[in-house]
Amino acid sequence: MTNIIETEELTKYYGFLFWKRNEPALSRLTIKIPEGSVFGFLGPNGAGKTTTIKLVMDLIRPTEGSVKVFGRSPDDMEVKKMLGFLPDCPAFSSYLSAYDFLNICAKLLKIPPSERRKKIYEVLCIVKMEKHAKSKVGGFSRGMIQRIGIAQAILNNPKLLVLDEPLVGLDPHGRQDLKDIITSQKDKGTTVFFSSHILSDVEKICDRIGILNKGILLCSGRIDELLSVTGIRAHINPGRDEIAKELMEHASGTIKLPNGGWELVFQNNNQAESLINSALEKSPGAIAITPTRESLEEFFFRKVENSSGIQ
Ligand SMILES: Nc1ncnc2c1ncn2[C@@H]1O[C@H](COP(=O)(O)OP(=O)(O)OP(=O)(O)O)[C@@H](O)[C@H]1O
Ligand SMILES: [Mg+2]
């Protein structure tokens, strides 16, 4: 598997005096982000997420350690051509229209003049801002500016999309639109690396996450492997009420399904497994089981609280 971003002991101190070093904003971050993944970067305020993103984007330089993007140094022009970026507080010239702003971006990205108009309207439609193409950015709301920022980030069909807090300022429709945009970028093979505090959205769209606290990486990996299994969910086929009744008294949750079947939730895996296995021996195929997992929110608080002793 190719890694699109790879950091090795990446460390950043923001300025220091000879006799006293500040705490590092980022400390020995070693992380790999494979091609085609949607990676959510999480952590409390001041954890070091924006610092990491700036290092990846070559906006600041590491104090120690290294970062590679597409296997190269992030200051390589070939790397920059493959990137799309949304900064944490996008701000654009207020006197420009949305179209004019994107036209400047298209020129900088060297999109041929004959293709610019089509491409700009294509991205404006993706972020649902085509009706505001001729309106001045200065009159836009926070969410509208965020949408224009996302439009410029995807203008050059990036192979890596880096978004710092892209969900900030978006209403529920905007958040859904952004989730759809990220999913469609992933479907095109784009790798997405973004930071966010909205854990429920991260859980839905990411396949991988990393959690930072006080500049230290607490964990990273596939989301389905990180979240602990907390129990079992059993679906009992319609017409098998006798099985449901037998298992019901051990279940922590019971739902009668519209199709006449039952959904039972068990917290105690071992007991539930042996009960379900003996029911399945008598009636093979009558029950389908899936593991239930803790939510990303539960996992996040568990990890961050456990690390509160880290200095
Ligand atoms: N330009 C700077 N000069 C000095 N210190 C800075 C600078 N930028 C960030 N820091 C410090 O580095 C640490 C990490 O900040 P960073 O912006 O990377 O956090 P973050 O995880 O993005 O937080 P948030 O969720 O609030 O956006 C913080 O302690 C912050 O005060
Ligand atoms: Mg930040």
Task: Describe it.
By secondary structure, the protein is an alpha/beta fold. The chain has two domains: 3-224, 3-Layer(aba) Sandwich (Rossmann fold); 229-293, Alpha-Beta Plaits, CATH 3.30.70.240. 36% of the residues lie in helices and 26% in strands. It is built from eleven helices and 13 strands. It has a six-stranded mixed sheet with strand order 5-6-7-3-8-9, with helices on both faces. A four-stranded antiparallel sheet has the order 11-12-10-13. A three-stranded antiparallel sheet has the order 2-1-4, with helices on one face. Helix 3 (98-108) packs across helix 4 and helix 4 packs across helix 5. The relative contact order is 0.14. The mean pLDDT is 91. Adenosine-5'-triphosphate (ATP) binds at residues 14, 25, 43, 45-51, 88.
